[in-house]
Automatic annotation (TrEMBL):
Keywords: Cytoplasm, Lipid biosynthesis, Lipid metabolism, Metal-binding, NAD, NADP, Oxidoreductase, Phospholipid biosynthesis, Phospholipid metabolism. This is sn-glycerol-1-phosphate dehydrogenase. One of its GO terms (biological process) is phospholipid biosynthetic process. Pfam families: Fe-ADH_2 (PF13685). It comes from the Bacteria. PANTHER family: GLYCEROL DEHYDROGENASE (PTHR43616), GLYCEROL DEHYDROGENASE 1 (PTHR43616:SF5). InterPro entries: G1PDH (IPR032837), Glycerol_DH (IPR016205). Coiled coil: none annotated. One of its GO terms (molecular function) is metal ion binding.
Length: 455
């Protein structure tokens, strides 16, 4: 059967699992994850799923103390009763970081004849299991315990190596299981973080559109359409998500898994991550270097989203296409390098090298500006459409019980200003931060935001 764009847009994440199709955008999209079960009592279907996907009988179940209590223990007992050989690798405390030590701990528990890894947990446990499964060439499935982040179906794991976070490109889980009974009982800050990670897609999608015009990056209307559909449902259900209602929890979890599926389809993280994620990474690095405990990922990107939206508003009001783009002077480049060294310490030389390609000369800037001018009315209209999905992101964050201002998550006005100036160097990727910089507006915006949040 031919799969059309319209039929893809009608599908739930469960129905998108395992599909591949040639898209109108010119790319062939493929979802590597083969199966998803999201319903009440889904834990009882794990044995059947393992059998159906032919994943063997000998499994290593990876969990931490919290996720073991929430679902891991019951699942291990049940699978053992059903004839599987389940070995446990359970962290004695709640695991906050995927680092070298955690990975080796799980690797020690992998046996030569382990056929399957079952990750029971959310972000960190999933990241560890993905890494170990990929390196040991063992397929893994995830049993989700909280709708807290969008990494379930993603193919990369951020791992702390020597104290710095590095994202490794690995593999998708073969299957994702979400038991709504378990997900609804997750602590409230987890679903609040999940909503934050979804609201962040508003600015991520704006950045993707912007990059498709200014940098002529490939863009897919079908994938963006899937994300908008998921976002719309979640935005309309924020209070019910906070209250742990079944239908709303399902919508949130579907949106989070869909974000990973969208990344699998397009082969990069554009549909799910933009400037708001870069700002959050910047804060995280600063806080980690200072020895502070960091907030949940979704909480940080949620706080960064209204700030990036404000920058979009500023550029739309200033009629960005009417403004000049000027090449940086030698003095400005030297200042740029100085700031990177100051912000990024041991990573700075690598980041300077990586980002030099984004420092454009005047003729390269003229080309970008011509693209912006040529597409401005349509780009403006499309950006506005996405931004209008949630005219008041801060109030949505508050409704779900999440912090909405940088100060509430320990980000000082100075760290806010620095993040706006420097977060674009975290990844070699074009976002609204680069556009504002090219138009000479970024410094003033950073100062304004820092003083606004300093009162
Ligand atoms: Zn995220
Ligand atoms: Zn496409």
């Amino acid at each position: 059967m031919d799969i059309t764009a319209e039929s893809v847009l009608q599908r739930t994440p469960e129905q998108l699992a395992g599909i591949s199709f040639n898209c109108a955008c010119g790319l062939a999209h493929r979802v590597h994850m083969r199966k998803m079960i999201l319903e009440e009592g889904a834990l009882h279907k794990v044995r059947e799923l393992v059998h159906e996907l032919n994943l063997g009988r000998k499994a290593l179940l990876v969990a931490d103390s919290a996720s073991f209590a929430a679902a891991g223990k019951a699942l291990a007992e049940q699978l053992s009763r059903q004839g599987m050989d389940v070995r446990l690798s359970v962290f004695p405390e709640e695991q906050w970081y995927a680092d070298e030590k955690a990975i080796v701990r799980v690797l020690i528990d992998v046996e030569p004849d382990t056929e399957l890894i079952i990750a029971v947990g959310s972000g960190t446990i999933n990241d560890i299991a993905r890494f170990v499964g990929f390196k040991a060439k063992i397929p893994y499935i995830v049993v989700a315990t909280a709708p807290s982040m969008d990494g379930y179906a993603s193919t990369g794991s951020p791992i702390l190596v020597n104290g710095f976070k590095k994202t490794y490109s690995l593999a998708s889980p073969v299957a994702i299981v979400g038991d709504l009974t378990v997900l609804r009982q997750a602590p409230r800050d987890r679903s609040a973080a999940g909503v934050g990670d979804m609201l962040a897609k508003i600015t991520a999608l704006c950045d993707w559109l912007l990059a498709s015009v200014v940098e002529e990056e490939p863009y897919c209307d079908v994938i963006a359409g899937l994300m908008v559909k998921a976002l719309t449902g979640i935005i309309g259900s924020v209070r019910s998500i906070r209250d742990g209602e079944e239908r709303a929890t399902k919508l949130l979890m579907e949106g989070l898994v869909l974000s990973g599926i969208a990344m699998q389809m397009i082969g990069h993280s554009r549909p799910a991550s933009g400037a708001e994620h870069h700002i959050s990474h910047y804060w995280e690095m600063r806080h980690f270097a200072a020895g502070h405990r960091t907030e949940l990922h979704g909480i940080k990107v949620g706080v960064a989203t209204p700030i990036v939206l404000k920058l979009y508003e500023t550029l739309l009001e200033a009629d960005a296409a009417a403004l000049p783009m000027k090449e940086k002077s030698a003095g400005q480049v030297a200042e740029w390098e100085r700031r990177i060294r100051q912000s990024y310490g041991p990573l700075s030389e690598e980041l300077i090298g990586m980002n030099r390609s984004l420092l454009l000369n005047q003729s390269e800037l003229d080309i970008r500006r011509a693209r912006l001018i040529g597409n401005w009315p349509e780009l403006k209209r499309k950006l506005r459409e996405i931004m209008d999905l949630a005219p008041d992101v801060k109030s949505l964050l508050r409704q779900v019980g999440a912090p909405a201002d940088p100060g509430e998550i320990g980000v000082s006005p100075e760290e806010l200003g620095d993040a706006l100036r420097m977060a674009k160097e975290v990844r070699n990727r074009y976002t609204v931060l680069q556009l504002a910089d090219q138009l000479g507006l970024l410094e003033r915006f950073a100062e304004e935001m820092a003083s606004l949040h300093g009162d």
